[in-house]
Amino acid sequence: MTNEDIQVPGGEEPQKPEIKYHIGASKLNEYNWLADLPFDPRYNEVIEVRFKNTRKGFYRNVNGLKLEVDDIVAVEASPGHDIGYVSMTGFLVHEQLKKLKIRPVIDEMKKVYRKARSVDLQKWEEAKKLEVTTMLRSRKIAENLGLAMKIGDVEYQGDKTKAIFYYLADERVDFRQLIKVLAEEFHIRIEMRQIGARQEAGRIGGIGTCGRELCCSSHVTNFVSVTTSHARYQDLSLNPQKLAGQCGKLKCCLNYELDCYIDAQKEFPSKEVPLELAGSTAYFTKMEVHTGIYWYSSDPRMAVNLTPVPVSRVREIIHLNRKGIKPDNLLAGPPGNPIGKGNDLLLQNSGLTRFESKSNSREGKGKHRPFHRKNDRKHK
After folding, report:
1. Residues 309 and 296: beta-carbon distance below 8 Å
2. Where are the alpha helices (H) located in the chain, listed in sequence order?
3. Which of these, 315, 319, 269, 262, lies nearest to 290 by C-alpha position?
4. pLDDT confidence tier of residue 279, bands split at 50, 70 and 90
5. DSSP-derived secondary structure letter, 146
């Protein structure tokens, strides 16, 4: 049944159902810790608007509209207008500009035209439906032209007059011919924007080796450089298959615990100094950062006769070697003196051994029960 078939008393025209747009949780949303404060028009001059994926921008509210987060607005573009969500308003915008070290010139900022109307939303929905087909077609065109690039995503402007093509390329690409072909094919203005492998992974999404959603597609917005030194500080094996993420780059999570490992190793002695003993030399092999233990080998090239030595003992031996003294053993006590396990909760609550004491006690009780019963029967 259509709206024309609906009979409204009084000859009034039937009302069309209102289209409601709701934006869910996004990694680009900022927590408004000033939401309880009353509205202040003095901080309503500049707002932040976000678009598809990670694209954001600051716009001037020239009409003095009272805007709230998640409102859909029509903003100035070049050319035409674009549609986006309001992601930040009020005093937080000024704090965000300070954080990003942006000094905006109010007169040169693009403007907020109005809140999006039903016509704007309808054209915006039509534009978004064209993005997938346009991306697939543009990939074939780039392949036919022999360009060493990959078009990862396409974003249409709200008025369907312009589109941004996000591409990946290892080397510099001359895409002037590609722009001409795309403009003739889709009859729109073309903008090419290069992105990295991590940005592409954030756009596509997926599940990481930890079993959770990729950090770049869930909460990471600023990509910090990751190098192999991050893995060395955490004493991780330099295995590219384990350290690389789905994007082929080093995992972003190598940055999460880096500061903790650096702080723990500030007072550690040098690992490059071998320990001179009375009859041999010990060479560093690996370490346990949070337990404060160095492992030493008797062979500089292979892990042979590994011995765990506390950091305090390593510092003591290095100090003795500088004085020309060579101790008899690596450990301060007698040879073969084991080192305590420390405060590792995982070792204390091991899933393999935590039930052994209970099972042994039960078995012991079971063995003695018949003996006591026999004695009881004899006494009876």
Report:
1. yes
2. 91-99, 118-129, 131-144, 176-186, 197-204, 215-218, 228-233, 240-243, 258-264, 311-322, 345-348, 356-379
3. 262
4. confident
5. T
Q: What is the pTM of this model?
A: 0.64
What are the C-alpha distances in Å from 154 to residues 52, 84, 135, 193, 299?
10, 16, 6, 10, 57
Domains by residue range for the chain, with CATH: 20-116 (no CATH), 126-195 (3.30.300.20), 202-263 (no CATH), 268-344 (no CATH)
Give burial (CB, 10 Å; 0-12/13-18/19+) of 375: exposed
In this predicted structure, the answer to whether residue 28 has a pLDDT above a threshold of 70 is no
Mean pLDDT of 25-44: 71
Task: Work out the pLDDT band at 333, boundaries 50, 70, 90.
Answer: low
Give the 3-state secondary structure of residue 86.
strand
